[in-house]
Amino acid sequence: MTKENPSLKRKIVHAGGWTIAKRVAKSIPYVGTAMAIGLVGYDIKRKGVVKGVLNAGIDAIPFVGLGKNIVEFFTGDLLPDKTTDGATNKMPTREK
Predict the structure, then answer these.
(1) Residue 19: count of CB within 10 angstroms of its CB
(2) What is the tens place of the pLDDT at every residue in 30-46?
(3) Which are the contacts of 80, defined by CB distance < 8 A and separation ≥ 6?
(4) Is the distance from CB of 32 to CB of 24 less than 8 angstroms?
(5) Of 7, 48, 59, 92, which cross-links 65 as Cys (Cβ 3.0–4.6 Å)?
(6) Cβ atoms of residues 36 and 56 within 8 Å
(7) Where are the alpha helices (DSSP H) in the chain?
(8) How many CA atoms are closer than 13 Å to the CA of 80, on its beta-carbon side?
(9) What is the pTM of this model?
(10) Where are the domains of the chain?
């Protein structure tokens, strides 16, 4: 019953992989916040000033924005786009 000891190279790769995974996991909320801030102009253009800033502000909060985006994935926009001709802009649907 001999134990196989992992080689030094294998230990280094294993430790390095965990270190990289931890760093990436820690940076995800910051990356999402930076993207939300970068898309403020697009949200304002699409939804209007108040709704656009509110939408981007909610998206910039790390875990709250994630929850909002998950809900919106299934239900559609929580804050609808501004009206241009009296009707709310909606995503085009496929015609059957």
Answers:
(1) 10
(2) 887 888 888 888 889 99
(3) 47, 51, 88, 89
(4) no
(5) 59
(6) yes
(7) 8-38, 40-47, 49-60, 62-75
(8) 9
(9) 0.59
(10) 18-73
